[in-house]
Amino acid sequence: MTGRPRTGVPLWVLKLTMSVTGIVWAGFALVHLIGNLKVYGGAQGFDSYAHWLRVVGYPPVPHEGVLWSLRVLLVVALVAHVAAALALAVRARRARGGVRARHTTGRSRAAGAMLPTGLLLLVFLGLHVLDLTLGVAPAASPQFTGAGSAGSPYANLVASFTRPVTATFYVLAMLALAAHLWHGTVLAANDLGVTGARARRVMVWIAGLLAVAVVLGNAGIPLAVQMGVLS
Questions:
Q1: In the record, which residues are listed under signal peptide (predicted)?
Q2: Which of 82, 132, 140, 201 could, after both became Cys, cross-link 144 (CB 3.0–4.6 A)?
């Protein structure tokens, strides 16, 4: 052993990557939530919104150009976020010598929940794309009407959430997303230099409101389908 320090990506770069990419996905979660709420306006309004996403900016922008640009941005942010998270987890484990701390506080338990909720969200994201975007069985319902402009996003959503297992998993995923967003937003604010007591309280409130909005807004949709409110 030479005692030379380990080389690699600086810690601050990993934390900054986590913060910026986390903010990108938090912003997407909020915008996606607003779009999802259009489902309560009925099939015509929801399907029109889904169609608009494909033609926004057209003809100056190619058909689905904005949509694909956002998809690429989200995929890049996701890959960077996961890579930084794994790198930080490995460094934290090495710093502890591979030994898990016996005494934990509420904050450390919340931090410890970030990895399992993140893994659950990765599984959910993959299944969600197979279900409502691509219509790949068995993730998608047998009543899937078609991808893109060929089908009805509203009908696909309702058909998917009539399945109790899918509806339950979606609700659980939204609870995991709320927890991930709440703690992740607070961590991101700290890593980006929001250290004042008043500013930190504001960020905690913002994170909490975002988490509650995700649960009430998104998780309410499969419950509404199960109760027959949406059909």
A1: none
A2: 140
Query: Is residue 5 situated within a structural domain?
Result: no
**Residue 36 one-letter amino acid:** N
Q: Which two tokens stand for residue 45?
A: 């309004």
User: In terms of pTM, does the model score above 0.85?
Assistant: yes
Say how many C-beta atoms besides its own lie within 10 A of residue 129's C-beta.
13
Specify whether the CB–CB gap between 184 and 77 falls below 8 A: no
Is 3 contained in some domain?
no
Which of 4-13, 97-106, 115-124, 160-169 shows the lowest per-residue confidence on average (mean pLDDT)?
97-106
Over residues 179-226, the pLDDT tens digits come to: 999 999 888 888 888 878 888 888 889 999 999 999 999 999 999 999
Domain range for 46 is 11-98+105-226
4 domain residue, yes or no:
no
* Count of domains forming the chain: 1
Both tokens of 4, joined, read 């030379």
Structure tokens at 159: 């058909």
The string of DSSP letters for 82-150 reads HHHHHHHHHHHHHHTTT---S---HHHHHHHTHHHHHHHHHHHHHHHIIIIII--TTTS-TT---SGGG
